[in-house]
Amino acid sequence: GDSVTQMEGPVTLSEEAFLTINCTYTATGYPSLFWYVQYPGEGLQLLLKATKADDKGSNKGFEATYRKETTSFHLEKGSVQVSDSAVYFCALFHAGNNRKLIWGLGTSLAVNP
Amino acid sequence: GAGVSQTPSNKVTEKGKYVELRCDPISGHTALYWYRQSLGQGPEFLIYFQGTGAADDSGLPNDRFFAVRPEGSVSTLKIQRTERGDSAVYLCASSLMSSREQFFGPGTRLTVL
């Protein structure tokens, strides 16, 4: 079945460092891919998405490119801030899965000043 | 506009008791989803409603779990004879049928003592 594998955390960075959180997936066909973020004490929020191969999703300085050839959707940010400290989830949506999201385990990011 | 709301935000109960968790989706969203998130894990799909009917309940762990959505809007997740292993954050999400993007509520943290 479909699955998502995310790099394990926790990740600890200094402010203004470069961030990469790896995400790879297994799916038949052409799923949509998402990054959700969960700030401390808050609910899941959609961070960015890509619906087809080579699409780049971007938001709040974060980017991720849908790479079908490597089945990846790695999250990147050029300069992280303390306020980016959160848990990041990679997720896959495939219509063949009856519309449910398939999730990675989440990667905790802590950014120190 | 209002987002997805869930009540209560926290529920503490004793083993063997019955609980109901409520979800108010975004107005006009015909698709509604329940997920469960244990500590350090990604969300786990429970059930998906399309309108009033459960289109996919394959994620419900056993027959102690049941969910309804009688008028196609508010949904209630019902858990009978709660067990300590049911302790988790229960998440509700909604979406337009035409969209792959799901909007999440803040969750209900259930603790079974």
Which residue ranges of chain A are poorly predicted, with pLDDT under 50 across at least 5 consecutive positions? none
The strand count of chain A comes to 12
What radius of gyration of chain A results from the CA coordinates?
14 Å
Into which percent range does the helicity of residues of chain B fall?
under 10%
User: How can the largest sheet of chain A be summarized?
Assistant: 6 strands, mixed
On the 0-100 scale, what is the average pLDDT of chain A?
93
Helical segment count of chain B: 0
Q: What ranges of chain B have pLDDT less than 50 throughout 5 or more consecutive residues?
A: none
How many angstroms does the end-to-end distance of chain A come to?
41 Å
Overall pLDDT score of chain B? 94
The fraction of residues assigned to DSSP E strands of chain B is over 45%
The backbone outline of chain A, from C-alpha atoms, is globular
Give me the strand/helix succession of chain B.
EEEEEEEEEEE
Explain what the structure shows:
With 113 residues, chain A is mostly beta strands. Helices cover 0% and strands 50% of the residues of chain A. In chain A, the strands form three sheets. In chain A, strands 2, 5, 6, 10, 11 and 12 form a six-stranded mixed β-sheet that branches. In chain A, strands 3-9-8-7 form a four-stranded antiparallel β-sheet, with no helix packed on it. A two-stranded antiparallel ribbon of chain A has the order 1-4. In chain A, strand 10 and strand 11 form a beta hairpin. Chain A is globular, with a radius of gyration of 14 Å. Chain A starts with a strand and ends with a strand. The model of chain A has no long low-confidence stretch (mean pLDDT 93). By secondary structure, chain B is mainly beta. In chain B, 0% of the residues lie in helices and 49% in strands. In chain B, a hairpin with a 6-residue loop joins strand 4 (31-37) and strand 5. Chain B is globular, with a radius of gyration of 13 Å. In chain B, 35% of the residues are buried. The A-B interface holds A 4, 32, 34, 36, 42-46, 49, 51, 89, 91, 93, 98-106 and B 31, 33, 35, 40-45, 48, 55-56, 58-59, 91, 93, 95, 100-107.
